[in-house]
Amino acid sequence: MSTPIIDLTELFGLSGRGDAPGRLLGKLETANHTGSVKDRPVERMLRDPRVAGAHTLVEATGGNTGISLAVAGSMLGKRVIVTMSRKMSPGKVRQMEEAGAEVILCPLVGLDSPANFINVARQLGEAEGHWYVDQFNNPANVEAHYETTGPELLEQVRDLDAFVAGAGTGGTLTGAGRALKERNPGIDVVLADPAGSTLGPHLRGEETEPAPYLVEGIGGDFLPPLLDFGVLDTAYQVDDAEAAAHLRTLAAAAIDVGSSSGTTVGAALAYLRDHPGATVCALLADSGDRYAETWRNQAWLTDHGL
Ligand SMILES: Cc1ncc(COP(=O)(O)O)c(C=O)c1O
């Protein structure tokens, strides 16, 4: 099944802007079975023959991979243990637990600390009968997007000028980006990066100190091994306040998506300002249902100045 493309051009007021207003599209990954783009890599990673020999699947996640793995694991009859940073929304924990997974919340510390969620998962994965799925290093993550997300975009948007997504593991941008460039090297692959992440600055050759931000699932303070910076053409950084404003616009049109979609829409609008007339597709990676206590909660938004 291909996820739908929706046209956001009018919603974001682009159609009235001059002779070459451009087109803003969104790829609605909420239509995947568990409501996020992560069903794609999870389905592919679970084809691994090591799954059969494991009674327990372990994964480090920003939440969406964990939700997808929890559901898949319960269908396969496997125990699922997921590690996640405390920063992430409680709704994600709830969805994982409802599907039968065990969730270990870890402090928001860098990879140099053994308490970091990725290090905790790697350690747990070493136990007898456990398999660490390892989306951050598993090549099947990239392959899933190379074989599905990229070709779908080429099929669905014939005059695509740019694809915009965030990077958590880098699987989406690396896999889909390679597929797009292979077919048409003129398509720009654009990193949507939260302000505070070090990935966008790295692409520009700047090494910066990470700063905290609230958007979930993308950006970070380390370079994900699967992210091929060679496939990226440019990056735009979007702060939490701008992401929240775009989410309000989307919600008003009953487009129920998660925090990172505010970032990808912001980056796509910035790209359109630099490339008037372009056709741009932003990844809308996950559903708003997992953000009930946070990005979907006015009191939380107000508390955080959003
Ligand atoms: C919430 C969320 N998770 C994951 C991703 C993509 O992650 P990855 O780089 O791991 O493929 C995105 C991309 O925009 C996202 O918004």
Automatic annotation (TrEMBL):
Q: Which Pfam families match?
A: PALP
Q: Which CDD domains match?
A: CBS_like (cd01561)
Task: Cite the InterPro entries for this sequence.
Answer: Cys_Synth/Cystath_Beta-Synth, TrpB-like_PALP, TrpB-like_PALP_sf
Leader peptide range in chain numbering: none
Q: Which cofactor does it need?
A: pyridoxal 5'-phosphate
Q: Which GO terms describe its biological process?
A: alpha-amino acid metabolic process
**Stretches assigned to the Tryptophan synthase beta chain-like PALP domain:** 3-285
Gene3D superfamilies recorded:
3.40.50.1100
Q: Which UniProt keywords apply?
A: Pyridoxal phosphate
Q: What's the protein name?
A: Cysteine synthase family protein
Originating species: Flexivirga aerilata
